[in-house]
Every structure is written in C-alpha cells, then in structure tokens.
Amino acid sequence: MVSQRRREARKYIAQNRAATFHYDISDTYEAGIVLRGSEVKSLRDGKADISEAFATIERGEVWLRQMYVASFFAARAFPHAERGVRKLLLHAREIRALERSVSREGYTLVPLDLHFTDGRVKVTLGLGRGKKDHDKRAALIERTAARETVEAIRARRDRGHGRS
User: Fold this and answer.
1) Predicted structure pTM score
2) Residue 163 gets which letter from DSSP?
3) How far is CA 54 from the centre of its chain?
C-alpha cells in the first residue's frame, strides 16, 4: 500500500508553464533522462530550469538541450556542464513516432516538466506546434474573462453571507 502511494506521488522539480502558452501541445511522452550524480543532487535541491530547453532527435536518439542544472557545491572537483546536452530514454517505437511527427512542418519537442517518479528523474515532453500571435492574444483574453467571472461569483457569494 505504501509503495503504491509512493509510486503515484510525483515530486515536480521544474515546470515550463510558458510552453502551453507558446505551443499547442497535441501529445505528451514521459522520458527518462541520463544524468550524473551531481546533477541528480542539484535536482533534488530544485535547482533546475527548463524554460529555454528543447529536445532534438539525432540518429535515432532524443537529446535535451539548453536545460539548466546548477552545479552542486560538493562536486567542485568534477563539475557537470550546467547547460549540457542530456540524453533522453524512450522506447524505439516512441522515438520513431516522434521523428515522424517532428519531420512534419511546425512540430517541435518541448519539455513540459521535470519530476521524480519512484526516485528516478523523468521529463514530460510535449509534441507541440507553435501558436500564432493572434492565438496567444485570444488565450489571454479567454483566461482573463474566466478569472473575472470566478472573482465576480466569489464576490457575490461572499456578499450574500454577510462578509465584507
């Protein structure tokens, strides 16, 4: 019972919230990531940034580029590259499907989040197509309208119960 709860628990290290704003995400994949010990220790401290990261497919392998992992203070003798290229671990059939999708015009692989699953570091990749500026404006207007609606309902409900 405890191990099942632990398996279901997902501890987020970093999230790329801008990805869903800039891209229409059509599909997601969870991939393992090849890391050094000092990188894992930095990730456990939450010292990572994936806002500028992207994934590429080269010779049947998926690589994560521009992901920032801060150097670990105790590993000064053998430091890792903070913005190094890191290999992602996916099944061969998933890589082939991604390669077909990315070869179509406009699709790209964007990391959505970095998290621990069962003690292992995983990255969620989104297969997305870049949004046009007018789509982004429409999304902002929609989000603002939804937020104002929720605030108005909350204010009306609070006034009805005698709260200030």
Assistant:
1) 0.70
2) -
3) 10
